Amino acid sequence: MAVTTAIAIYFLIWWIVLFAVLPFGVRSQHEGEDYAQGTDPGAPIVARMAVKLAWTTGIATLIFAILAAIYKSHIIDVAALMNWIRPPH
Asked: Helix (H, G, I), strand (E, B), or coil: what is residue 88?
């Protein structure tokens, strides 16, 4: 696998995991006691983005490492997988 391909795959995995992690632990303003006037009631009280970015990076790295190990060890034959996915002519 080329380095640029690996970086692109990692980026896609990271981005998907980010959207999965974003809603965890979010309390909106209408759930809390303090409501800031002029803001959306669904806005989070505390976003904790640094923690979410750290979790995203860790989870994405783990997923990428597992997929890279599967690819390198030929557990799943990519050529056979592509033949299975390709529609008939």
From this structure: coil
User: In which element (H, E) is residue 58 found?
Assistant: helix 49-73
Q: What is the DSSP letter of 44?
A: B
Cβ(1)–Cβ(70) below 8 Å: no
Residue 62 clears pLDDT 90, i.e. is over it: yes
CA distance 18 to 88: 36
SS (H, E, C) 8-36: HHHHHHHHHHHHHHCCCCCCECCCCCCCC
Where does residue 17 rank: exposed (0-12), middle (13-18), buried (19+ CB within 10 A)?
Answer: buried
Q: pLDDT for 12-60, tens place per residue?
A: 999 999 999 999 988 888 787 777 788 888 888 888 899 999 999 999 9
